[in-house]
Amino acid sequence: MIEFPFEERNSSRLGKIFKPIIPVALCGPQQTINIFVLLNSGADISLIPYSLGEILGLPVDMSKRHEIHGIGEGSIPYILSEVSLKVGEYQTKIRLGWALVEEVPFILGRLDFFDSFSIEFRGFENKIILTPALSKGQERESSSS
User: Which site among 49, 56, 89, 129 is 20 to 30 Å from 74 CA-CA?
Assistant: First the structure.
C-alpha cells in the first residue's frame, strides 16, 4: 500500500483546493523521467506533452495517431504509446497518449493504470491510497542489500 497526500493549490476562482497529484517515473526507450501527474479517474487515458515523449524516446508511429476530445469542442492529437511507469516500488506498463502538442497537462488516466492498482481517494483525509494488484503484469522492484 502506498499513500500520497493531496497537493494543496490555490485557485483564483475557487480558493484553496486539494488535488490528487502523485510522483511517478516514466521509463521510455531512451530515458527515465520523474514527474508529478494528476491522478484522474475521469480520464480514459494518460496524457503527456510532446516534449516529454521526445525526451523519453517514444517512436513516432503515425499509424497509432488518434484524437481525444474533452470538455468543449476542441481535440488533441496523440500517438498511443507504451511506457513503463513506476510508482513507489511498483512498476507496471501503461499505454498513454503522447500528445502532438505541448499544451497538455500530465494526466494519469484509467487505461492500464487503474487495472494495476486499487485506488482510493480519501477526500476527508486529503490523501490517496494505492494498493497494488500484482496479477496484471506488475512487478515489485526488488531491494538489494
Answer: 56
C-alpha cell at 48: 503527456
73-90 pLDDT tens trace:
789 999 999 999 999 999
* CA neighbor of 42 nearest in space, from 134, 127, 105: 105
- Whether the model clears a pTM of 0.70, i.e. scores above it, the answer is yes
The C-alpha cell at 114 is: 487503474
Q: With beta carbons less than 8 A apart as the criterion, state whether 100 and 77 touch.
A: yes
Domain parsing of the chain, residue ranges: 2-136
**8 Å CB contact between 47 and 111:** no
Rounded to the nearest angstrom, the gap between the alpha carbon of residue 40 and the centroid of all alpha carbons in its chain is 8
